[in-house]
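Quick one: structure for this chain?
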Amino acid sequence: MPTLGLDLILPGERYSAGRFARDAAEWLDRIQADGRQPVVVGGTGLYVRALTDGLFQQPPLDPARRARLRAWTEGVPAAQLAHWAARLDRRYAGGGRQRAARAVEIALLTGRGLTWWQEHARASGAMRPWYIHLTLPRAALRRRIAERVDAMLAAGLVAEVRRALTAGAPRSGPGLDGVGYPEVVAMLEGRLPESGLREAIFIATRRYAKRQETWFRHQLRGEREAGSGTVDVWTLDASEPPQDLADQVVARWRERAAPRSPLPSIRS
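Got it. Here's what it folds into:
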């Protein structure tokens, strides 16, 4: 079966949570049609929530005003853009430059924050997920982040960014907004010494991991109410051996998927 979800867009093209939800729903259908059980894995909670809770109906936006506003946000530094997003939407939870620009756009063009629209606009395509929340002790998390940074650099991260810039990808474009890429761009432009690249990516990744943990702690607090019912969240310690974790997950899944008798149980 061909790999799904890779090489979809160019580095300068925007890819929203809504577009991901539509694409991912199609991929899940294709996997299930092939007789397999899909598992969604990742740390970008906003995208997972867009897939599981459904898409909200976007309010009408004036195309001309939207184009002017987008041109303005592209020239605003990421930190300042996040500041404006938080000022315009008090419940804004962060999520990168593209997310901040979206929050500013919705708030200024509609008069209401993005989180308000997500709560009040009609949702579609919602599903009932079962979440497995993996956590790590802080020391173990820092060690794994360092290992990941080393692996990214060893795999050719700098060469990848250099090729993208040479091909014409915008330095502030969505494709170069992910953790690690802005730091490499800064190094290639002489704003960051090469000796400080690894530490800069490590710090950025650690901060992102902290935001992730905060997001999941608030959004997946035990059990929460979603559009189609109660959502179950099971927290596991990811420092356990991977095979042990996999065995626990499979056993729990089989227990949940087993057919239940419609008759009440009889206790002696």
